């Protein structure tokens, strides 16, 4: 126990390594909570007494102390710097999360996003004062439509899931425009689809019907044909799917769905595997979100709202939400009112403003830096890296759909761990001791004990070699019966393994001071 009464991790070497009084281990310093560092009755900043004013909050006005601890500036700075030293990030090492595409964010992108006129643009500025921002958005839109082969786009969604909502709302509006809203309500979702897809369908008020995948992890057009009918509104499919496999029958599936009068929504989370090699619009897709952070190297969230532009086919383009970009006599215009849009029937507005400028700048910088051939190479390299890992581990770790070519991520299951006493969770926790962020675990749900690994195109061969060698060492240890290395892991993280189930079921939502620890007797 340290002086805050919390368990600490012994230093590297052995379990008997002495614990320090402070909880610090040289430059890795133990850090207390803000409430333990500061005092609620003090503050590190002096405030003048406010002048008399009339409160406008009514019954919402605070009547008691705010109860937050006051810290001096050095205390606050040290607190957050110390916490940052405990973070694992893409700048620290590989983050091989499957389907999350944690790639390197080029620093050039960050520099461009901080240029005056982009970094300081305000959403309430008059449109006449931001022609450069509108021109950049139009250029970005043109690139995204060309890459996907789609004729229309909405830039306003703030994230991938928000983009899904946009695409499905446009599809729902197209169905209503044909007078079929009362009958077409069901959305088909394959078992291999992205996890947010059924939630999005539910949000637009459409029940979900599952589509089973065949033994090779892909969707069978014959299964889709059995399920389509006058009640089907759309099929939401992820391609490449969450098993890391390309849906080779996607064009035939789209034909079946379209002939039944329904629409195809494609989850674009894995566009980084096919960018420059296959265009979703050419495959029959009607709507697809593009996660800029996954394919075009913008940060996850970017310090604020993320960005999930949605590309639309001609069948649903008229229903794209406001605001819209269009080219008029005076250049690029922002259409804020539906009546001003040429033949447009927008389903409404998704957000107060048009988008996240910082994300737009970063994504376009990435595109302009690479060019069309460079973007295609990025996809090739991402697929190559995943298959390099597959080949390097296939003799030790089991592949649920066989040792076959995968796309940008490779999926293992836990069959190879049978009778070892080691679980997928144990294996992932042991990766932390080796200095790696664990892969995606237990997803997709169609595979038992799934381990989904996506290295991305950012990793060098040396980095991949070390990663493969590390996982081979762990796999050999598990097979040899060295269960202690796994069941107690991580041993060297700032905190040991937590009881995550109890934390979820019995969360502690309020801090209470710990009991004081008496000084040891001489």
TrEMBL record:
Molecular function terms, GO-annotated: glycine binding; glycine dehydrogenase (decarboxylating) activity; pyridoxal phosphate binding
GO terms under cellular component: cytosol; glycine cleavage complex
Domain Glycine dehydrogenase C-terminal: 378-473
Residue ranges occupied by any Aminotransferase class V domain in the UniProt entry: 182-301
Enzyme class, broadest EC rank: oxidoreductase
InterPro entries, per database record: Aminotrans_V_dom (IPR000192), GDC-P_C (IPR049316), GDC_P (IPR020581), PyrdxlP-dep_Trfase (IPR015424), PyrdxlP-dep_Trfase_major (IPR015421), PyrdxlP-dep_Trfase_small (IPR015422)
Catalyzed reaction equations: N(6)-[(R)-lipoyl]-L-lysyl-[glycine-cleavage complex H protein] + glycine + H(+) = N(6)-[(R)-S(8)-aminomethyldihydrolipoyl]-L-lysyl-[glycine-cleavage complex H protein] + CO2
One Pfam assignment: Aminotran_5
GO biological process, one term: glycine decarboxylation via glycine cleavage system
Protein EC: 1.4.4.2
Key words, A-Z: Oxidoreductase, Pyridoxal phosphate
Function: The glycine cleavage system catalyzes the degradation of glycine. The P protein binds the alpha-amino group of glycine through its pyridoxal phosphate cofactor; CO(2) is released and the remaining methylamine moiety is then transferred to the lipoamide cofactor of the H protein.
Annotated protein name in UniProt: glycine dehydrogenase (aminomethyl-transferring)
Organism for this UniProt entry: Chelatococcus reniformis
Organism lineage: Bacteria, Pseudomonadati, Pseudomonadota, Alphaproteobacteria, Hyphomicrobiales
Gene name as annotated: gcvPB
């Amino acid at each position: 126990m340290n002086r805050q009464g919390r368990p600490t991790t012994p230093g590297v070497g052995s379990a008997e390594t002495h614990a320090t009084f402070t909880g610090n281990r040289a430059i890795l310093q133990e850090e207390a909570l803000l409430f333990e560092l500061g005092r609620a009755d003090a503050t590190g900043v002096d405030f003048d007494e406010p002048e008399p004013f009339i409160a406008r909050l009514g019954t919402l006005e605070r009547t008691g102390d705010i109860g937050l601890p006051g810290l001096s500036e050095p205390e606050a700075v040290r607190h957050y710097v110390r916490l940052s030293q405990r973070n694992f990030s893409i700048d620290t090492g590989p983050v091989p999360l499957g389907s999350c595409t944690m790639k390197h964010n080029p620093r050039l992108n960050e520099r461009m996003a901080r240029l005056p006129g982009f970094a300081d643009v305000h959403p309430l500025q008059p449109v006449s004062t931001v022609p450069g921002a509108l021109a950049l958005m139009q250029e970005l839109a043109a690139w995204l439509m060309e890459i996907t082969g789609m004729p229309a786009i909405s830039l306003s969604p703030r994230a991938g899931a928000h983009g899904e909502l946009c695409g499905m709302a446009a599809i729902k509006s197209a169905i209503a425009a044909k007078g079929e809203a009362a009958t077409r309500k069901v959305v088909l979702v394959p078992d291999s689809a992205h996890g947010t897809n059924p939630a999005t369908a539910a949000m637009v008020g459409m029940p979900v019907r599952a589509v089973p995948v065949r033994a090779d992890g892909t969707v069978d057009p014959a299964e889709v044909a059995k399920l389509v009918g006058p009640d089907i509104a759309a099929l939401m499919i992820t391609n490449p799917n969450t098993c890391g496999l390309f849906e080779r029958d996607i064009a035939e599936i789209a034909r079946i769905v379209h002939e039944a009068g329904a629409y195809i929504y494609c989850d674009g989370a894995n566009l980084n595997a096919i960018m420059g090699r296959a265009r979703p619009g050419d495959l029959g897709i009607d709507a697809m979100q593009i996660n800029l952070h996954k394919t075009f190297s913008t940060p996850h969230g970017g310090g604020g709202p993320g960005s999930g532009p949605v590309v639309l086919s001609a069948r649903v383009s008229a229903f794209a939400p406001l605001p819209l970009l269009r080219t008029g006599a005076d250049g690029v215009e922002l259409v804020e009112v539906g009546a001003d849009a040429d033949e447009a029937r927008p389903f409404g507005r998704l957000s107060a403003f048009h988008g996240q400028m910082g994300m737009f700048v970063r994504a376009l910088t990435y595109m302009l830096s690479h060019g069309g051939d460079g973007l295609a190479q990025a996809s090739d390299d991402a697929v190559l890296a995943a298959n390099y890992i597959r080949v390097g581990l296939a003799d030790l770790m089991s592949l649920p759909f066989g040792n076959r070519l995968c796309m940008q991520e490779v999926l293992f299951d836990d069959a190879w761990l049978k009778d070892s006493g080691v679980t997928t969770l144990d294996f992932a926790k042991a990766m932390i001791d080796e200095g790696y962020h664990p892969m995606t675990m237990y997803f997709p749900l169609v595979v038992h004990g799934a381990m989904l690994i996506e290295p991305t195109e950012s990793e060098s061969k040396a980095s991949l070699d070390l990663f493969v060698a590390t996982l081979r060492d762990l796999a050999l240890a598990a097979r040899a019966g060295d269960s202690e290395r796994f069941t107690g892991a991580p041993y060297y993280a700032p905190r040991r393994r937590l009881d995550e189930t109890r934390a979820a079921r019995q969360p502690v939502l309020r801090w209470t001071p710990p009991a004081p620890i008496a000084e040891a007797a001489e």
